[in-house]
Amino acid sequence: MPVVTTESPTIAKVDEIIEKHLYEESALIGILQDTQKELNYLPKEALKHIALRLDVPLNRVYSVATFYRAFTLKPRGKYTISVCLGTACHVRGGKRILEEIERRLGIKAPDTTTDLKYSLQGVNCLGACALGPVIVINGEYHGQLTPKKIEGILKQYK
Ligand code: FES
Question: Which of 91, 92, 121, 125 to mutate to test the pocket of ligand 1 (most atoms within 8 A of CB)?
Fold first, then answer.
């Protein structure tokens, strides 16, 4: 007979994180942060498991997970592309940069490609206004962009 296991690899990772936080209800935000870091987003099964292990109502876990913008309940791509739409970038064509990336990826911000390679989002000032228009891909800044430069940049993230 095959061994029946109820624990998925995802749940095993979540368990490790909860254990690290000593099953403390007060560590809920930290647990969600670590879970998202590990899984790239917060799957439903992870949220349910956290509620169960911490013995808190599921709707409390959901309300924290949906309150903070840093958390996402939808799968995210391997690469997160943030396009600055702050004032300095906007006046230098930030919107055209966003439109060019949307066209190339075939999605609209904020969305993720079906192959889970790219997530695209428009954001406010990224703190590098002098380099505008600016995008950030997984923490790497690309500035002084034109729509023509986008193809070459995306090629660096395969
Ligand atoms: S407005 Fe784009 S980096 Fe500041």
Answer: 125
Ligand 1 atom at minimal distance to the Cα of residue 84 = 2
123 lines ligand 1 (CB under 6 A): no
Dihedral sign (CA 158, 120, 83, 31): negative
Neighbour tally for 55: CB within 10 Å:
8
**How far does residue 96's CA lie from ligand 1's centre (Å)?**
15
Q: What is the pLDDT along the chain (158 residues), one digit of tens a residue?
A: 444 445 688 899 999 999 999 999 999 999 999 999 999 899 999 999 999 999 999 999 999 999 998 899 988 899 999 999 999 999 999 999 999 999 999 999 999 999 999 999 999 999 999 999 999 999 999 999 999 999 999 999 99
The verdict on the CB of residue 135 being under 6 Å from ligand 1 is no
